[in-house]
């Protein structure tokens, strides 16, 4: 679908809606799945058809997405088997890093396996060897959840962590520009976060090289500092109620949050209403109305600022720093793509 707002393009109202058996099919529960795949509760594609070629994908205006809920099983009353492979480590394809799964096939009497994604042959570590039965299947399939089912939980060994497990850290970065105040975002976010925990407020005017305003750790224990944090969140909407500043320094704010959290990891939640207009990561106006309805339309949906891609890679390197954004989705797309974030 295509079309600039207010211009020619697809009229959503005129789109035919599914009726009869098509409506029933659209509303039906997902089809049953075999145990070798994960449940649709865990992972579902946002579309049920995908481009058949790279060339078609490049011209495809719709983003391809998957809804991933790794914790869905418990809410459905299912237990996820836990896998701890000890000295064998987590077994993954040497070329494409695909995890051991029920679709791998076995060769050389069980001493090698063929990756079901990239078809390369891998050696089986000594501690993971099993004889094959007369049909070429491993004899220990029933004892190994990763070979018998599509959903397992691995106990990650030390090489998968950049630091020992840390207490959960949440960092809230809140836009206080005119757009955030007038839209009610600041008020809503302050009220909501107050029910969870809360941050301290410091003012940093430096845009190009944001620094930390306190030499010590800016993170606080939510339970110990509850009173101070509640007071801050209560005062935030009033403090900025008459704010007429329309500019927003979102990129520098993200960088400052990164500096605070990089030694412990954690989750960064960004609540943004205004278009970023100051410092690194500011948005350029690249709307080209003539591109709508043409092959060039898909380029408008590609991020063109390398800052967000670099930032996402840095977040991923220190693990678990996950911004959530509400505006300029195209520009920030690399951040959740690389750092496993809900956008
Ligand atoms: Zn592979």
TrEMBL record:
Occurrences of domain Sec23/Sec24 trunk (ranges): 196-319
One MF annotation (Gene Ontology) recorded for this entry: zinc ion binding
Is Transmembrane tagged as a keyword?
Answer: no
Recite the UniProt keywords alphabetically. Answer: Golgi apparatus
Show the InterPro entries listed in the entry.
Sec23/24_trunk_dom, SEC23_SEC24_subfamily, vWFA_dom_sf, Znf_Sec23_Sec24, Znf_Sec23_Sec24_sf
In what residue span(s) does the Zinc finger Sec23/Sec24-type domain sit? Answer: 90-128
UniProt GO BP: COPII-coated vesicle cargo loading; intracellular protein transport
Primary site of residence: Golgi
**Does this UniProt record's set of keywords contain Cell membrane?**
no
Query: To which protein family does this belong?
Result: Belongs to the SEC23/SEC24 family. SEC24 subfamily.
Q: Which domain of life is it from?
A: Eukaryota
Q: Name one Pfam family in it.
A: Sec23_trunk
Could you identify this protein by its name? COP-II coat subunit
Q: Where in the cell?
A: Golgi apparatus membrane
GO CC annotation: what is one?
Golgi membrane
